[in-house]
Write a structure and sequence with these properties.
With 172 residues, the chain is mainly α. The chain has one domain (8-158). It has helices spanning 8-18, 21-29, 41-51, 55-63, 67-76, 84-91, 97-106, 114-122, 127-135.
Amino acid sequence: MKAAPMSFAEVFAPLEAWGSENTRRIYARMGAGENQFGVTLGNLRGLVRKLKTNHGLALQLWATGNVDAMILATMLMAPDRLPVKEIEGMVKPLTYYRLIDELVDNVVVKTSHADDLRTRWMDSPKEMIGRAGGTFWPPGLSMAAPGVWISAPSWKRLRPKSCPLPSASKNR
């Protein structure tokens, strides 16, 4: 028998208990602000394994403004259900680099708007919006071996000259 989905209260309550004062201080120094509990990413990822994708719950968590809840929200969102204006509205007020990175990695790169947003954001004079554009990890670029290009025709223009595409020829 399948378990009933967890409610907002059942998800939000443990976040405070999982937080620590030391982690809160560290995250605050890094730009997270005061509206956070100091929950480690490991705890959030463990919870995501139980919850799976839940877009409605994700939007509720995002709306709290609590950094820990917002990071969790990025892991639960259904990217295809976010219009471009909503994504831009989510990015604009952010001041914490970790939250920007999680939003881009977990949500934005999986949308049909990704290439357009990356292009527009990269040249933004606003630091965090520029970071959002620069955070994109293009499909085809191996995270296991940064700088190793596998192949992705739409991203060729981002390929550093020092990382040529693999040659079709076996004789190099």
